[in-house]
Amino acid sequence: GSPADLVTILFHLGEMATATQSLDETTFELLADELGYKLDLVSPEEEDKELLETFDIDLDEEDDEEDLEYRSPVITVMGHVDHGKTRLLDAIRSGNVGAGEAGGITQHIGAYQVVQEHEGEDRSLTFIDTPGHEAFTAMRARGALVTDVAIIVVAADDGIMPQTIEALNHAKAADVPIVVAVNKIDKEGANPAKVRQQMTEYEVVTEEYGGDTMFVDVSARTGEGVAALLEAVLLTADAGLDLRANPNREVRGIAIEAKLDKGRGSVATVLVQSGTLRVGDAIVAGTAYGRVRAMINDAGERVEEAGPSTPVQVQGLSSVPRAGDVFLQTEDDRTARQIAEKREALERNAMLAKARKRLSLEDFKTALDEGKVETLNLIIKGDVSGAVEALEESLLKIEVDDSVDLRIIHRGVGAVTESDVNLATVDNAVVIGFNVRPDTKARERAQREGIDIRFYNVIYGAIDDIENSLKGMLKPEY
Ligand code: GDP
């Protein structure tokens, strides 16, 4: 029918609409019902896939076996604050001077590559140069997983701390294999055995105890153990991952860092995943588009091309992409621009719809009844660990029928952060804050994503609300 027909039907359904207005999901469902057909609603990711298909770009296209070549593993370093993530990243990089361009001035572009001899071969490794799980989760929330292996750093003089556990949870949730770097072994009071012991409580068991996780003692200060750590990463990657990509095809990658530079305009660091990016290529990343004007590698040198697992800083985009945006090569710049513009329009619509779609405690029962969710996923943040534990214990004790599952997917001490909200976005969770507030970024992000954050000052307040939410979904007994 014509737009006018649709408006008429909508009007009968009790919805005021104009022909140019975008509709929410429920309205679409009602409309489809009225017209007598079943509607399959698509997620933003699928929507983007469909958009790209109209430009003959297929993100799921598989490469032929014979076109695949080895690529370096991509590694993220995570762990508790002050346990030595930054210093370890520096040690890994500087220990490697001489392996590549000796004396080259290192440049921070968001990632770097090093070379390690392994079983008689020179192997390269790519490190994401922003430590911590915030970037990792932010990217994951956007559907981008650029990490093959996570190094979890634990200071041997401090042991496992809240953010160590967060880091573990994030790696586990993303199904990324881990290697534990037991750092600061040069320090007095370092107790690497204790770290191994503590980790078993989180089901991370060292090979020395018959588990399958490699632990390596290191000192980021002296450089001791760093080579062994790189070897452990390579062994872990080789054991469980297929590190191959096709370098001879149109480029796919992920923007891992981007900014506006006064002189150079938009600069974005891309980690190429397949294909080979060259100066002059037409590209689109999210809603940014353009041609590669120049590329700089991690040594600050101008380069003409970059293959799989190689990070390069790219100039020439029309605007600044977001970390996690997929980076695509297109046939020409017109195509790149059209894709970017279509995405911008879709994004505007999606934002409106999204806020209505997320899980909240009130609508949990409805969502469950409709089969949209099976578990109530919770993230708990509190001011002190005792309170967090008490709350968690009480919540897990709430009696519910077997069809209903309550899961605490993450807990921690401190304010509700953007990273908590990102995790809630990925795993469709409700966030509980006990005696804490969200920081500004978290609040903004939660609003944008429609994440339900609840704040309580008394434990019973939280328990009551959750219990009511769960009780509502108990099937009535006859
Ligand atoms: P991050 O917060 O995890 O990035 O930690 P940093 O890399 O900033 O390190 C925190 C502090 O620990 C700094 O003062 C470092 O110099 C120190 N540090 C890091 N690694 C080592 C180490 O292996 N040995 C010693 N003695 N100090 C270290």
Portion in helices? 25-40%
The total beta strand count reads 21
Task: Using the CA coordinates, give the radius of gyration.
Answer: 25 Å
**Sheet with the most strands: spatial strand order:** 3-4-2-5-6-7
Beta-strand percentage range: 25-35%
Which structural class is indicated by helix and strand composition? alpha/beta
Report the major sheet: 6 strands, mixed
Q: How would you characterize the overall build of this protein?
A:
Helix 3 (44-53) packs antiparallel against helix 9 (333-357), helix 5 runs parallel beside helix 12 (418-427) and helix 11 (385-397) runs parallel beside helix 14 (459-471). It is built from 14 helices and 21 strands. The chain has helices spanning 3-12, 25-35, 44-53, 85-94, 133-141, 162-173, 192-200, 226-240, 333-357, 364-369, 385-397, 418-427, 440-449, 459-471, and strands at residues 69-70, 74-79, 111-118, 121-128, 149-155, 178-183, 214-217, 244-245, 252-261, 265-274, 277-278, 282-285, 288-296, 302-303, 305-306, 311-317, 326-330, 375-382, 405-413, 429-434, 453-456. The longest helix has 25 residues, at 333-357. The two termini are 47 Å apart. The relative contact order is 0.10. It binds guanosine-5'-diphosphate (GDP). Guanosine-5'-diphosphate binds at residues 79, 81-87, 131, 183-184, 186-187, 219-221.
